[in-house]
Specification:
It is built from 20 helices and three strands. It is mainly alpha-helical. The chain is globular. The N terminus and C terminus are likely disordered.
């Protein structure tokens, strides 16, 4: 029997798009501009304008009243089938990726036996486009697994926890050897977002979670420092006196250089390309199709050529707004970022109300965190996640109770 009930919606400022952008990303962008001495640069403020459009779009969707939704209960058998499929497909992707190590484990032991030599595995092991990228579905496994656990919809937890640990270990190994810290962020962030907003989390824990960004910063710094110790400290230890000041400077440079690369690329390019090479970046990097597009359409100055001639090849990323503006121009970019802000907030509402489309926002959340560093949503790695999320949305089976929505999305208390 279905019954109407009131739903307590748990809002946390650093998860909600409009407050994350307004209270964290915009101030952080200004701080980066101050540190990099770009506050007097016109192109710097063009990017600020686009981030502000993203904020306006998210704010517009946030103040709209929520529709009546279903507080879903996930169907046990269907949910477990989805978890199995996500695990086996992800494991298959890692199998293709790590096949040379599986075939010849001595490669791994030899690399581990010599300090700093583990990164040489990258020269031995090559990714297989279209196959090794299937490992990206591990991000969806992490999100779906945590959602089912916190909602109490997963009764047989042992096996699926084992699958989770295996995928986490593979992600950790991949992050270490291939220096893909982003892979670790992709895997953990959706799980953290889902757990933090769960209705089953106690109020005491919820109050602690509101301060998570402070803890998260130190956690990120510690993890970053560990990776840098094995990755670059052996090369810089002779010229740097203090390891911790070195890693803090490196972490800051990853963000400030992304902004400076964006400013430099916009100035160097002079006019937008209008070829879609960055806006539809995932298509341009597909096997065969991408090669055809690059040879027939792709004729403008590229970001890769800018990096070769004018930037530090070690810091090879640029902030998302700059790259979109360089591709489609400022007016269209303003419209795009406003619409993207609206999409982020709409996805957040669907997620927070626990309906069938809950899966989108946790995996899109990474794009907000990486906004100042790269154009994540347009990359091939996210396109696989998005396709997988659509399939999860279509095939997951739920049964629900009618819920009465709150008056608006800012309220955190149950209306009386």
């Amino acid at each position: 029997m279905k019954s109407d009930k009131q739903v307590k919606i748990r809002h946390i400022w650093w998860i909600k798009p409009n407050t994350l952008i307004g209270l964290a990303l915009l101030p952080l962008y200004i701080l980066i501009g101050f540190i990099s001495e770009n506050l007097d640069n016109f192109n710097y403020w063009l990017s600020f304008l686009l981030i502000f459009c993203l904020f306006l779009g998210s704010q517009t969707a946030a103040i709209r009243k929520n529709r009546i939704s279903n507080d879903v209960i996930f169907h046990k058998k269907r949910s477990e089938t989805i978890l199995k499929c996500l695990f086996y497909i992800s494991a298959l992707g890692y199998f293709f990726w790590f096949f040379e190590i599986i075939k010849n484990p001595a490669l791994l032991f030899k690399a581990l036996s010599n300090e700093g030599q583990v990164f040489t595995l990258r020269g031995v092991i090559e990714t297989t486009p279209g196959l090794s990228t299937l490992s990206q579905l591990s991000v969806l496994y992490s999100a779906v697994y945590i959602k089912l656990v916190v909602d109490g919809s997963l009764k047989t937890k042992g096996k699926y926890l084992f699958f989770f640990v295996i995928l986490f270990a593979m992600t950790l190994f991949r992050s270490w050897v291939w220096n893909e810290r982003l892979a670790l962020i992709e895997f953990l962030c959706p799980a953290i977002v889902i757990y933090a907003t769960s209705k089953n989390v106690s109020n005491k824990s919820n109050n602690r979670l509101r301060l998570f960004p402070i803890i998260g910063f130190f956690a990120i710094y510690i993890i970053f420092s560990i990776f840098e110790y094995f990755r670059s400290w052996q090369f810089y230890s002779k010229s740097e006196d203090n390891f911790f000041s070195f890693t803090l400077k490196r972490l800051t440079n990853y963000y400030s250089s992304a902004v400076e690369n964006g400013i430099g690329f916009i100035s160097w390019q002079t006019t937008p390309s209008y070829d879609g090479s960055l806006f539809f970046g995932f298509i341009y990097q597909l096997p065969y199709i991408g090669e055809l597009l690059r040879s027939s359409i792709y004729k403008s100055k590229t970001f890769a050529s800018y990096l070769q001639c004018c930037a530090d090849p070690e810091f090879n990323l640029a902030s998302w707004p700059f790259l979109i503006a360089s591709d489609i121009g400022i007016p269209l970019s303003m419209i795009f970022f406003y619409l993207m802000g609206y999409v982020f907030s709409t996805a957040y509402k669907n997620f927070i109300l626990s309906n069938k489309s809950f899966i989108y926002y946790p995996v899109m959340y990474v794009a907000l965190l990486e906004l100042l560093r790269q154009h994540y949503l347009h990359s091939p790695r996210f396109s696989y996640i998005l396709v997988g999320a659509i399939l999860v949305h279509l095939f997951i089976k739920t049964r629900g109770q009618k819920t009465i929505p709150e008056e608006h999305s800012f309220s955190t208390e149950v209306p009386k």
